[in-house]
Amino acid sequence: MILGITGHKGILGKSIINYIKKYEKSNYKISLYQNNVLDFDKFGKWIDKVDIILHLAAVTSINAVNKNKKYAEKVNYLSVKFIVEKIQNTNTKKKLIFISSSHVYSSSSKKITEKSFISPITYYGRLKYKSEKEIQKRLSNFLIIRLFSYYSPKQSKQFLIPALIDKIKNIKEKKLKIKNYNNIRDISSIDYVTKQISNLIFNKYNGIINCGSGNGISLENLAIKIAFKKFSKKIEIDKRFKIKKPSKIICNNYKLLQITGIKKRDNLMKII
Question: What is the C-alpha separation between 91 and 114, in angstroms, rounded?
Fold first, then answer.
């Protein structure tokens, strides 16, 4: 069984590859796609040689997506559409594993299940959901993983926690300014999501599933914890940036834990 992986140079890709190689359970051979996913001639020939496609290649930074929406659409949607058409026209037994996002959901007072209301509030989320619909409409052998936020020390400052760390490190004013600091998010460590995704692959699960820690934290509390743990600082948040209707996006990971069996709590704060 050959597991083909796109986007293998990214943080999540490298982490999953290392985990699979170290904890191999199903004797997968790994094939890494080395070219641009928009080079459909080369991409199609590579797809012919693999049994499962783990499609990680994507523009993942919200800022990067918004700055170049045409390019983001090509990478985040058209590459998926090409894979779907290729499988449909040549070998319907091939499996597509697609990394979607919690951005397909809207804010919810309850933990979000796979059946929660779909309402993408970002262009990134709309592209992910558009890809999901393409997969569900045309394929039967697929896994869609709706990944909630995660953190790796190797992430750039374009992402939430690295940006917070940089702000706290270089704070010069009395109070830290964070927009919408009372929003609540589910943020996992890279190790946690790697183990969960890898074990979904090992267990050959089909369908749609949420992947997150199941715990929520406000951006305010996150910043305070980072400041104390990483810099031994006690900080105050500038209350002028409080949002009247904060959003709450927390994963209901009951289904995930039942499938993977990994019920150990996440260690996010340990790696910050």
Answer: 28
Query: Are 101 and 147 within 8 A, CB to CB?
Result: yes
- Helix 79-90 vs helix 40-48: crossing angle, to nearest 10: 40
Q: Considering the entire predicted model, what is its pTM?
A: 0.95
What is the architecture of the domain spanning 2-151+188-213+251-266? 3-Layer(aba) Sandwich (3.40)
Q: Which residues partner with 52 through β-bridges?
A: 3, 95
Q: What is the pLDDT along the chain (272 residues), one digit of tens a residue?
A: 899 999 999 999 999 999 998 876 667 899 999 999 999 999 999 999 999 999 999 999 999 999 999 999 999 999 999 999 999 999 889 999 999 999 999 999 999 999 999 999 899 999 999 999 999 999 999 999 999 999 999 999 989 999 999 999 999 888 999 999 999 999 999 999 999 999 999 999 999 999 999 999 999 999 999 999 999 999 999 999 999 999 999 999 999 999 999 988 888 988 98
Task: Domain ranges for the chain, please list them.
Answer: 2-151+188-213+251-266
Given its phi and psi angles, is residue 56 left (phi above 0), alpha (psi -120 to 50 degrees) or beta?
alpha
